[in-house]
Design goal:
The structure is a single chain. This protein has about 100 residues and is mostly helical. It has one domain: Arc Repressor Mutant, subunit A (Orthogonal Bundle), CATH 1.10.10. The protein is about 35% helix and about 5% strand. A two-stranded parallel ribbon has the order 1-2. It starts with a helix and ends in a 20-residue tail after the last helix. It binds a DNA duplex (13 and 13 nucleotides) through helix 2 and helix 3.
DNA sequence: GCTCTGACGATTT
DNA sequence: GAAATCGCCAGAG
C-alpha cells in the first residue's frame, strides 16, 4: 500500500540521472517537506520495486551512502557501476543531483 | 486517538 | 575532527 508521500518520493527518484546521486534532505525538499527527512527516508526504504525506483541513488547529506535494502555494499557497487565516484563509502557533494525548482 | 519506530539532519560537547 | 544528543515528519501498531 503506497502512501502519497511514497508516490512523491519515488517519482522524484525517477528523475535522478545515471551517474548522479541525491540526498534525503534534497529529496525531502523536492516533496516540499524539508524537515520530513525521516519520513522520506522511510518511504524510500519501503519501495516495492528496486528497479522502477533507483533508491540506490539516494545517499545521506554527509556523502555517506547510508543503508540499502540489498545491503550497503551492493548499493556502493551499483553506484560505482553507474559511474558515481565513491571514496571509502563516501560520495563528493559535487555529484549530488539537485532537483529542479520547477 | 496515543505511542513507538525509522534507509536522517543539524547542532553541541 | 569525531561522537553523542535532540529534533523533525509520517506510517504502523
Amino acid at each position: 500500500m503506497a502512501t502519497v508521500l511514497q508516490q512523491q518520493v519515488w517519482d522524484k527518484l525517477k528523475e535522478i540521472p545515471q551517474g548522479r546521486v541525491t540526498t534525503y534532505a534534497l529529496l525531502a525538499e523536492a516533496v516540499d517537506k524539508p524537515k520530513a527527512v525521516r519520513a522520506v527516508a522511510s518511504a524510500v526504504g519501503k519501495n516495492p520495486d528496486l528497479i522502477v525506483v533507483p533508491c540506490h541513488r539516494v545517499v545521506r547529506s554527509d556523502g555517506l551512502v547510508g543503508e540499502y535494502a540489498g545491503g550497503q555494499k551492493k548499493k556502493i557497487q551499483l553506484l560505482t557501476q553507474e559511474g558515481v565516484n565513491i571514496k571509502n563509502k563516501k560520495i563528493p557533494t559535487v555529484d549530488f543531483y539537485i532537483f529542479d525548482s520547477n
